[in-house]
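The data layer described in this paper is built around a simple, fixed record for each protein. Such a record has a labelled line for the sequence and another for the backbone structure tokens. For reference, a complete record is included directly beneath this paragraph.
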Amino acid sequence: MKSTASLFRALLAVSMLAGCSSYRPTPAAFHKMLEQPYRLGAGDRVRVTVFEQDGLTNTYNVDQSGYVSLPLVGAVPARGHTAQQLEGAIADKLRQGYLRDPDVSVEIDRYRPIFVMGEVGAAGQYSYVPGLTVQKAVAIAGGFTPRANQESVDITRDINGKVITGRVVTSDPLLPGDTVYVRERLF
């Protein structure tokens, strides 16, 4: 009876330690997102050019609800669309009584920011640039603190409307809107 109780306590201790480790392997969707075309989201800024229409050519923000508001046509859905899909949507709206054959071009002017938290010199919000890796983002945020785990970090990413967190190495690329959390090392 006494050995059963000590076995039970040992199993309980092991299960509690396993729960404390909070290891989250990287979901397969993390790396699949890197191969897909960029999808617009709230916080992005796009440059819309309508050929021979200076009044419509301008820089527009994607608002919190995921729309871009243009003169004449109003709100055009942008969240989850690529720049090419947004071009088509704007052209379709302009064809509805405003322009006969609009030639629209959309390019990303500014990506939504990334956030770096945890054991870094200056946690906060930073501008995203294409080609940004975890290591570069940490460098922008003032580098690792002496207590930082420099092997891997946790990234929280919105994948198809679902917020997912996974652990990655510092050489992994980031996407706009990612949140990087640098953990404290154990020893």
Observations:
- The chain has two domains: 44-110, 112-184.
